[in-house]
Amino acid sequence: MNIDISELSQALMERVEKVKQNVIEESVAQMQTLAPVNTGALRDSIGIEDRGNVVTIGASVPYAPSVELGTESTDPNPFVRPTVDSIDAIIKRAIAK
Question: How far apart are CA 40 and CA 61, in angstroms?
Fold first, then answer.
């Protein structure tokens, strides 16, 4: 039995990329769903920076940390932390697809 390691390696890398994309899509969708909406700017600013092996998902509006963590005059309204807390389940669902 001959096994072409390069074919196996390519297939594995394609599968890993597909799982990564599924994790990104579900994470962004969850954050957008959890983000409070007044004008929609916070929700619409949620995006990704994909640098290959490192992916950053977050909101780009400057007030995002104040919404997530709260301020002296406002309660926290987390949308990032719950997504981070559920990342294991998100990854398992992506692998199962």
Answer: 11
Residue reference for tokens 């995006």: 47
Distance of CA 4 to the CA centre of its chain: 34
DSSP-derived 3-state class of residue 3:
coil
pLDDT for the residue 6: 84
CA-only gyration radius of the chain, Å? 17
Of 5-9, 27-31, 75-79, 86-90, the poorest mean pLDDT is in 5-9
Query: Which run of H or E residues covers position 94?
Result: helix 87-96
**What is the pLDDT confidence band of residue 1, given thresholds at 50, 70 and 90?**
low
Q: Report the alpha-carbon distance of residue 41 to residue 39 in Å, rounded.
A: 6
CA distance 90 to 83: 9
Instruction: Write the DSSP symbol of residue 9.
Output: H
